[in-house]
Structure formats: structure tokens, C-alpha cells
Amino acid sequence: MTEFTTSSGEVLTDEDIEALADEAERGYDLDKAIKVTVGRPSLGAKGVSPRLSFRATPELYRAVQRRAKKEGRSVSDLAREAVAQFVRS
Fold first, then answer.
1. Rounded CA gap, 86 and 80, in Å?
2. What is the C-alpha separation between 89 and 85, in angstroms, rounded?
3. 9-60: pLDDT as tens digits
């Protein structure tokens, strides 16, 4: 028999599964639903952060990884800063 678990790892008993099935059969009041935001937080005030992507040579990528690690930053953070500096110049 298949064992079902919650996202926190708790194993659901047969009673738990039956209670969930009963609840589903009664229907859900979506006005009481909790909105869950998925993904990373926005970088801008308007709630939209378009994704920029580009390819790099393996050497450049390794150099950026080393620099990011040395500065305690992410590769994305370094790339954002580099592009911003380029655009401003």
C-alpha cells in the first residue's frame, strides 16, 4: 500500500485520508482559502522582475562563481550589478 505524507513529512493515517476525502466531497469555500505566493520575491516596486538570461563561456562562468563566493554574493547579483553599470556608462 502507498504511504502518503504531508509537505512537512508527516505520514497520513487512513483516518486522515478519510477526513480529507470527506472534506473534499463537502466542497471547499474558496473565500477561506489562503493565497500562497510561489517563487522568488520581486526586485521591483511594481511586483514584476523580468528574467534576463544569456550564455557565457565556461571560463567566464567559473570566474563569476569564484568572485561571487569570495564576496558572499550570488552570481545573479553580480550579473545584475554588471549589467546596470554597463547601461549607466
1. 10
2. 6
3. 899 999 999 999 998 899 888 888 888 877 778 887 777 788 899 999 999 9
Q: Give the residue carrying C-alpha cell 553580480.
A: 78
Q: In three state form, how does the secondary structure of the chain look?
A: CCCCECCCCCECCHHHHHHHHHHHHHCCCHHHCCCCCCCCCCCCCCCCCCCCCCCCCHHHHHHHHHHHHHHCCCHHHHHHHHHHHHHHC
- Longest CA span, the chain: 65
Distance in angstroms (rounded) separating the CA atoms of residues 68 and 77: 8
